[in-house]
Design goal:
Layout lengths: L4 H14 L4 H5 L28 E6 L12 E5 L13 E8 L4 E8 L8 E10 L2 E12 L3 H15 L8 H19 L8 E2 L1 E7 L2 E7 L3 E6 L2 E4 L9 H9 L4 E3 L3 E3 L9 E2 L12 E6 L4 E7 L1 H4 L4 H10 L3 H14 L6 E8 L7
Antiparallel strand pairs: 1-5, 2-3, 3-4, 4-17, 5-6, 6-7, 6-8, 7-14, 8-9, 9-15, 10-11, 10-16, 12-13, 16-17
Helix pairs in contact: 3-4, 7-8
InterPro entries: PP2C (IPR015655), PP2C_BS (IPR000222), PPM-type-like_dom_sf (IPR036457), PPM-type_phosphatase-like_dom (IPR001932)
GO molecular function, one term: metal ion binding
Keywords: Hydrolase, Magnesium, Manganese, Metal-binding, Protein phosphatase
Length: 358
Amino acid sequence: MVCIGRLRALVLRAAAGAGRRRWARVLCGRAVDVCVTPRARGHGWRGFRAVAGARTKMMLDSSDSDSGTPAGQLQLQRRAAAAGTQPQDGGYASAGWQREDGKLKCGYSSFRGKRATMEDFYDVKLTEIDGHTVSLFGVFDGHGGSRAAEYLKEHLFENLMKHPKFLTDTKLAISETYQKTDADFLESESSAFRDDGSTASTAVLVGDHLYVANVGDSRAVISKAGKARALSVDHKPNRTDERKRIENAGGVVIWAGTWRVGGVLAMSRAFGNRLLKPFVVAEPEIQEELVNGELESLVLASDGLWDAVENEEAVSLAKTEDVPESAARKLTEIAYSRGSADNITCIVVQFHHDKTAG
């Protein structure tokens, strides 16, 4: 998706040398098991641990293909594949869910498309923490391999829910979790002879507050009061602020078919990509949105969709389809029919404020 093979080895060696003195800041300490081991160093936070006294009840986890749906919590609708299944044969994987009160529905569709391999991953978790209803949605678009995107699916939301300030300072928790998960991924891959990376476009709903965080060129778009509005801005190397940040860190932005960091990577922020640190970072840009009667739908998708579908068209379809899974699948089909050559993954969330419990 983003690399030029003939330039890669030469430029990455130069980038690695330029960033060597900053390496300790990127890796942030020793290798750890992110699920259980506290860290004394890092991003101003002493490690992933559960919120003190928190009571967590998982109602849906797309990472668990055997996850059931307890009565009175969610209604699960499976169409083409199990919830945690990644498409392996070029076909679609899709599923949909709705809360029993009908106020939130979500669905996804993921399609390998014309690519030889599948490097997109997704994650959906619906849970309850200390009486707070929490929903987490994520699209992870890998490049140079699938391992980084797969690692995010396995760890990012689990790490976030264990952050001690997840419920009290959600923005801070998201920012620190993104960067620490990146550091842990780099540590876990320190002996691997690969340098893949991944985007992350996530939406976290805590009560009536929606937090959208983005790293890379996947995108989140909402429909509010009938109008489409992007809640993320693609991290491209030719963005004025991103180019300045990269150059201030000692990096370069080069035209090589498109604008690329060091002539290699066509995005300015990503998880992984060890050899392009500290120029390519995993610090997210975060937008907060109050969920009220004007918020109609949310679309999260990899660039395989956005390369062929405009923001307005995506949310318009998401609003008109009764079933969000159908909307997600139609969007992936439209992108493919228009010539998208990438993996295509899309999550659609619909908000129904007029529904009443019981």
